[in-house]
């Protein structure tokens, strides 16, 4: 019996892919599942597990997959549309640990191969993580926004920082960088935008930075003079 089990394990062995390989594979699968989800109206977890390549096992890759489906409006249901009424009692919650002890859980997972499906395991883990409330999301967004303003302020307070902003315009005119590398939200290739309009905005902002740089240069000169005077006095 042992040899038979070993043989079955070898037959069922799945090729182990690196994270980069899984990332490449999941990008192809995302497009396929989006199309399939729109055709069917919704996809069940059973369908995800059956159709998703077994090589996809990493949590961050599955997270990318599930987020892509959610963003594109693909509805994921717990039960298959073709599920029989008699099977309803056997359906287990994805987000509950249950009242059974660890030994009973192990026995259940061994007897039910669906329990070890990557998507089910992923959803079970996600279910154990506390979700952010609306207030929590707003608070984090405000903290991020505040941090970004502090970064911009620090850059503008540095001669090197302001010069680097000006250099962005030069590199843009020379074709060394693209508009979407400067403006947030343009990274997606499907995003439509008028490049000329954004280039004009960039040069307008750089014009303000140049004016600020001239004013700041006087302040920096005064600081240097003050520091040199203090040193001579000592």
Give the secondary structure arrangement, pairings included.
Elements lengths: L1 H10 L7 H22 L2 E2 H7 L7 H13 L4 E2 L24 H10 L6 H10 L6 H23 L2 H15 L21 H39 L1
Parallel strand pairs: 1-2
Helix pairs in contact: 2-4, 8-9
Number of helices: 9
Radius of gyration: 28 Å
Proportion in β-strands? under 5%
Category by helix and strand content:
mainly alpha
How are helices and strands ordered from N to C? Answer: HHEHHEHHHHH
Approximate shape: elongated
Number of domains: 2
How far apart the termini lie comes to: 91 Å
Descriptive notes:
With 234 residues, the protein is mostly helical. The protein has two domains: 15-127, no CATH class; 134-233, no CATH class. 64% of the residues lie in helices and 2% in strands. It has nine helices and two strands; from the N terminus they run ααβααβααααα. The chain has helices spanning 2-11, 19-40, 45-51, 59-71, 102-111, 118-127, 134-156, 159-173, 195-233; strands at residues 43-44, 76-77. A two-stranded parallel sheet has the order 1-2. α2 (19-40) packs parallel to α4 (59-71) and α8 runs antiparallel to α9 (195-233). Residues 1-11 and 80-102 have low confidence and may be disordered.
What are the key terms here?
64% helix; two-stranded parallel ribbon; 2 domains; single chain; 234 residues; elongated; 9 helices; mainly alpha
Put the structure in a nutshell:
This protein is an all-alpha fold. It has 9 helices and 2 strands, in the order H-H-E-H-H-E-H-H-H-H-H.
């Amino acid at each position: 019996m042992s040899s038979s089990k070993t043989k079955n394990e070898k037959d069922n062995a799945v090729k182990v892919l690196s994270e980069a390989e899984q990332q490449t594979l999941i990008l192809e699968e995302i497009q396929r599942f989006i199309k399939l989800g729109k055709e069917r109206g919704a996809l069940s977890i059973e369908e995800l597990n059956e159709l998703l390549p077994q090589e996809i096992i990493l949590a961050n890759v599955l997270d990318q997959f599930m987020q892509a489906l959610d963003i594109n409006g693909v509805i994921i249901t717990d039960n298959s549309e073709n599920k029989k009424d008699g099977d309803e009692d056997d359906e287990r919650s994805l987000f509950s640990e249950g009242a059974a002890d660890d030994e009973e859980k192990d026995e259940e997972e061994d007897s039910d191969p669906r329990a070890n499906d990557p998507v089910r395991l992923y959803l079970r883990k996600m279910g154990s993580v506390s979700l952010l409330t609306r207030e929590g999301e707003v608070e984090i967004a405000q903290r991020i926004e505040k941090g970004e303003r502090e970064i911009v302020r620090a850059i503008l307070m540095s001669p090197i920082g302001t010069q680097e902003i000006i250099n962005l315009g030069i590199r843009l005119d020379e074709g060394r960088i693209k508009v979407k590398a400067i403006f947030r939200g343009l990274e997606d290739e499907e995003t439509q935008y008028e490049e000329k309009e954004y280039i004009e905005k960039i040069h307008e902002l750089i014009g303000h930075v140049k004016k600020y740089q001239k004013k700041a240069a006087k302040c920096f000169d005064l600081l240097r003079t003050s520091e040199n005077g203090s040193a001579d006095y000592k």
